[in-house]
Design brief:
homodimer; alpha/beta; Aspartate Aminotransferase, domain 1; Aspartate Aminotransferase, domain 2; 2 domains; 3-stranded antiparallel beta sheet
């Protein structure tokens, strides 16, 4: 998609292309990150580019642990945290740690397509379960029905990519209770892997409930790609619920997997930079403004969608039955979007609105022409 | 090993522990890297922390391609280079790209132990072939004898970890000719993966011959961990020989694997920092001085070893038959080394001399006491 956008910009002029395909924040990191970088550049700490323990710097892990502890009933220690090469790296480390070949991982439709590859990397099989088609909220009964003797884990993602929904505390609690029941029934541990790079990007003052308060065998995997706008820097972490069965063994295994999968660790310089920024984030209000502007315009034109509570994606219904054909038609109007079938949900399309507000403004007439062409207005 | 060293330093005092276990350069990156970092910190480039194309920044790939082209008869383009999360990431990307489940990869004893895990990660099987026990040089006939219908690749590493030997051009040529013959015989491609993070660390003005000039189906994998002293920063690359059969298909596959393995890419900031430093390296003379000092002292005490031509490791014979027992005995004298069996070579041990010269100086009497205790002097 990166290449396709670049080709069209070269062909039709960058200012004429409205690229809503990639979750690559156009915003810059908070000023505090720039200050930390300048400080380290001016007064480099000896050895600051060297290897560290395979789990990462203790002070970074400590800072992360304190941050997570604030949002949950659990007491997280540095020893529950491992710094990883982004959330992608973290997810692979977790899957390598917990999966035996042939075991199943439940993912929820619409899903982030990389989950399929990550599960396959470690000999697992992805089982898809649909979320509620009206709300994109979890269907706990459907998840329960999908759990079998080979199920090892469920990946959830809140705020969600691509739908923008947040799973409320009651849902996580219901999921946790169901899993405890199924674990007893099946005599095996079922993990919830909570992929939450958008956790600090929640609108209208909401906070995203922490999975640790509701689900015992749970793992958080996240990165600072979105909250500190550092997607190219591969800086993330995983954290294990201290209440997890055999939590020490899990952490030991995950440190080993971090190393042997070849990630080894998160970049040293970035670990230092984010240590003091655990309570910071990019300007959420700016994202909310973009959401409101585009949501109002698009629903006004007749596009149907769930209003996102966090993150920076819309997942509207495709006005044409064939979402790939719709994305191609949109391209004629210089609008680039991703067909829903890439997320296991044909009949929808994804808009990433982590773009310049000016681009959103400039795109509004194009959206109108597109809506006209498909007969919405 | 990181943790064991830390424990002993805490117990016996940091200044009393002579830790020769880890290839974690004590040297700082070249001053030019610090200048590039300061420049970026003072005048940040908009969007410099964002995602880029999955293969990395074009200008970084271009700089790498120009650097490699200087040392070989092949003309390398940016399109033959992919930026990776260190050499560990690069090796995993290559193995995922070329291996089918059950295929074999030949590694040479003594080998870097992570190769075993990397091959296993992608469903492959490691086949070990011994190097010449006197010189640690390649035994092309033994490699030929080990090649069968399931062989897919051979990993070589020059300058070598743990032995410090460099494979001369004639050996690479002989290896290349043998492989071409075997490829015709077997009707399949056999890859040479050249893992060369120590390529700029060659002593006495030697340069390490480029595998691309001698072996058609070859891939370079490396990082700036050692040559620019950035081991914690996960910055490396892979490059494919333009003469390779189906080179475009290989590169396309490797870009995909870089993404789906979860590495996604090398850190954005580090890619920028190394772009203009492709001809730079840490002070090689300083490494050579360390090598000479320790080599003279240890051989004077009766330790037997091949004199390293590059890198920063010695791989001496263990004066006790049991190399693990020897490493334990060394620890009694506050000397930390790695037993050879960790490299598939019992009866040897590894010394990493990428440490402060002062530590080497301080360790000399301890080595003498150790030599006395094992009856060498």
């Amino acid at each position: 998609m990166f290449e396709e956008g670049a080709r069209l910009r070269a062909e039709r002029g960058a200012e004429n292309i409205f690229d809503f395909t990639i979750g690559n924040p156009s915003t810059e990191p908070p000023a505090s990150l720039q200050r930390e970088l300048l400080k380290l550049a001016q007064e480099p700490v000896p050895g600051m580019h060297r290897y560290m323990s395979n789990a990462g710097y203790t002070e970074t892990r400590q800072a992360v642990a304190e941050h997570i502890s604030k949002g949950t009933t659990q007491q997280i220690e540095a020893g529950h945290v491992i710094m990883t090469c982004g959330a992608g790296g973290g997810l692979n480390v977790v899957l390598k740690t917990i999966l035996n070949p042939g075991e199943e991982v439940i993912i929820l439709t619409p899903y982030f397509v990389e989950y399929m590859f990550y599960i396959d990397n470690h000999g697992g099989t992805a089982e898809t379960v649909a979320t509620d088609p009206e709300t994109f909220q979890l269907n706990v009964a459907a998840i329960e029905a999908a759990i079998g003797p080979n199920t090892r884990a469920i990946i959830i993602n809140s705020p969600n990519n691509p739908t923008g929904v947040i799973y409320p505390a009651e849902t996580l609690q219901a999921l946790g209770e169901m899993l405890t029941r199924k674990e007893q029934e099946l005599g095996r541990t079922l993990f919830v892997i909570s992929d939450e790079p958008y956790a600090r990007l929640a609108y209208e003052g909401q906070s995203v409930p922490c999975v640790f308060s509701h689900i015992k065998n749970s793992i958080i995997v996240t990165s600072h790609s979105k909250d500190l706008a550092l997607p190219g820097e591969r800086i993330g972490y995983l954290a294990a619920n201290p209440s997890m069965d055999g939590v020490e063994q899990f952490i030991e295994g995950a440190i080993f997997c971090n190393r042997v999968l070849g990630f080894v660790n998160a970049p040293a310089l970035m670990q230092r930079l984010v240590t003091n920024l655990q309570e910071e984030s990019v300007d959420i209000d700016a994202y909310q403004e973009k959401r409101d502007l585009l949501y109002q315009h698009l629903t006004g034109l007749g596009f149907k969608m769930v209003k996102p509570q966090g993150g920076f994606y819309f997942f509207p219904e495709s006005p044409m039955e064939d979402d790939v054909a719709f994305a191609q038609l949109a391209q004629k109007h210089n609008i680039l979007v991703v067909p829903g079938r890439g997320f296991g949900a044909p009949g929808y399309f994804r808009i990433a609105y982590c773009v310049e507000p000016e681009m959103i403004q400039r795109s509004l007439p194009a959206w109108e022409r597109l809506a006209q062409e498909v007969g919405l207005v």
